[in-house]
Design goal:
Helices cover 50% and strands 18% of the residues. The chain is an alpha/beta fold. The chain has a single domain, classed as Rossmann fold (3-Layer(aba) Sandwich), CATH 3.40.50.2300.
Length: 147
């Protein structure tokens, strides 16, 4: 299971994203939803998520300011926003992905898939798990075909 936190000042967006995750990404468990950056910082420190879905435009503290409050970012960040002008800044914050609202299920699934592949790559030890070996072999074979 991937433990996730959703941080968005619009609670209907939190609920919609939660529903999409349950339907299309059942291996993502939303442990908490926060409607502001301050609560988001506390939820991250307390909950130690694997993944954070983070809105950018929020009152008092935007998503970038919220991330700057943390001494480290040991989780993946997928920005969820209605604004495309922040994409470059999101890359500088090492965003795993940048989803525009309304979130398209296909894009959400692709973003979560990136998270899974990243986890496999960083935790991968050859020979320990034949299934992981096969998955990574297939993944890297598909990349070669795309290049």
């Amino acid at each position: 299971m991937i433990k996730a936190i959703i941080i968005d000042d619009e609670m209907h967006c939190c609920k919609t994203l939660s529903i999409l995750l349950k339907e299309y990404c059942p291996d993502v468990e939303v442990s908490e939803q926060c409607d502001n950056g301050e609560d988001g910082v506390e939820a991250i420190k307390k909950g130690k998520p694997d993944l954070v879905f983070l809105d950018i435009e929020m009152p008092h503290m935007n998503g970038f300011e919220m991330l700057e409050q943390l001494s480290e970012i040991p989780f993946a960040v997928i920005f969820t926003t209605g604004y495309d002008q922040y994409a470059i800044k999101a890359i500088r914050f090492s965003a795993l992905d940048y989803l525009l609202k309304p979130i398209v299920p296909k894009d959400l699934v692709a973003a979560v898939h990136k998270m899974k592949v990243q986890c496999l790559l960083f935790n991968y030890q050859p020979g320990n798990n034949p299934i992981e070996d096969l998955i990574l072999c297939c993944y890297f074979s598909s990349i070669k075909k795309c290049v």
